[in-house]
Specification:
This protein has 278 residues and is of the alpha/beta class. It contains twelve helices and six strands. The longest helix is centred in the last third of the chain and has 17 residues.
Length: 278
Amino acid sequence: MNRKELNPDSSPQAAFGARLRSSRESHGWKQEDLAEHMGYSSTHISAVETGRKIPTLRFSRSADRAFGTEGIADTFERQWREIKHGALLEGFPEFVGHEGRAAEIRLYEVGVIPGLLQTPEYASAIAESAARRGVITAEQADERVALVSERQAVLLRTPPPLVLAVLDESCLCRPVGTPAVMDAQLGRLIDFAKLPTTIFQVAPFTMGTDRPFSLPVTVLTLPDRSLMSYAESAQRGHLERECTSVLPLLTLYHQLQAGALSQSASVAMTEQLRKGTP
């Protein structure tokens, strides 16, 4: 049988297929063996390995179960997310995978409402603007909006994570979309604050230089209590797992919370902005 040589550097899809083949061969399995372990046909396995078929989320999770790679940093599911969301910053698809199973999520955002708290209309307004400017395609804009919805499923998980959100005042003041879109988005923040496993705070402009962060940052506490942080530059996202680097960020986050408005004061500010009053 002719063996097709694979070039994992040609595309994320090719890298997925090459890794699938390499993992299978390292276990001493034929395609038929892997097919039995994953619940797929050997023809399907062959098509994914050679890049003729794009893997699905179900396929990726089945591969992780078959090879025992569930719960590690570099899963097949993470690679699938990179294929699906290729227009996203490097590092972000991997972060989303960890975010979905985090026990605690601490986030700080500047300028825009963070994805976990966005309404579909707000998310669409941002994505459509990027498409109009030619930064992404219309199809990629749709993918970004769909990803926002997928990520928010973590809030409905049982048990749900503890989510602590500190938003710079600019997030609330910057108009996105129509007045109706902003009204609904501010209403979403108020509803978010009412949930039993959330804390919502606003970092007011008056904090000035006492604000410890100048860029958005997220700190995750995973089920095993390990910490992970995620931050973005204009070119890429950076996922940090080293405790020596993440712990100082956690300390700064606590300082941020101490200087920010209380939840009740933050909700009051949001309600005032919603009514159009300063």
